[in-house]
Amino acid sequence: MAEQLRNLFTDEVKDANYYSIIVDSTPDVSHEAQLTLILRYVTGNGEVVEQFLCFVPLKSHTSKWLETTVLEIIANLGLDIKNCRGQSFDNAANMAEKYSGLQARLNNANPCALFIPCSSHSLNLIYNAAAKSCEGAMNFFDFVQNMYAFFSVSTHRWSMLQSHLEQANGKHLTVKRICDTMWSAHEDGVLALKMSYDVIKKTLLAIATSNSEKTHAKTEAKALAEKFCGTVYFKELIMQSANRCKKLIQIY
Fold first, then answer.
1. Domains (ranges, CATH) in the chain?
2. Residue 114 near residue 40, CB atoms below 8 Å
């Protein structure tokens, strides 16, 4: 099925003649790094589409290996690199470096392949830098991460939280992990605290006052409950605005 779809997408690209490539690397669930290749092109009816083509095991992070791999994939698809009109990656040095990054190497193969840094990734870097420049913001996100860690490291505490969430009426979300490379994960984490504020605080207080819990767990639960205040609602409003901007960039 995958091969049939790749052939279909490749035929559409050949009809369009010109295309752009989007390349990124990410670890899978088994923590093995893999390269992702996406083609962007305009169909015969004028529709701009992006089609995922394949995952490739990431054997090296060097720009030379990335160049060889990307050119090999494009050639195996029967496409001509000379018809590539755009390339977009993140801002990592091996991808975006002006003289020896992947974009520079592909540009040597085809000067018409205009490099455009990923706007979403650039905005993500701006958000992270802005948050790290503010002590209050750093402390708040540390609290969000600590909240997730407190429940996730213990199957008993996680089960207790999920039970309270199921018993509560209305839409509630469980605690989320903060991810430095994805700003949307920050918004998801803060939104979960806002939507489930009462339930999470109730669970923390239940753990803090339980005679069956260990002392260190009770102490940590009490500390988290005391830090858990209504400012999470204000922070979530800020996060919503930032995330809307990021989603608009992804669309356009």
1. 2-117 (3.30.420), 122-251 (no CATH)
2. no
Residue at 49: amino acid letter? V
106 closest CA partner among 128, 84, 134, 136: 84
Residues 175 and 151 sit within 8 Å (Cβ to Cβ) = yes
pTM over 0.90: no
Distances (CA, A) of 230 to 123, 187, 209, 246: 28, 16, 22, 25
Q: CB–CB of 156/163 below 8 Å? A: no
In the numeric block, the tokens 């801002």 are attached to 91
Query: Kindly report the CA angle at 156 between 204 and 216, in degrees rounded to 5?
Result: 55
Closest CA to 213 of 160, 152, 144: 160
Amino acid at 231: T
Q: Do 100 and 63 contact (CB within 8 A), yes or no?
A: yes
**166-208 tens-digit pLDDT:** 888 667 788 888 876 666 677 788 888 888 888 999 999 999 9
**Phi/psi at 85 (5° precision):** -115, 0
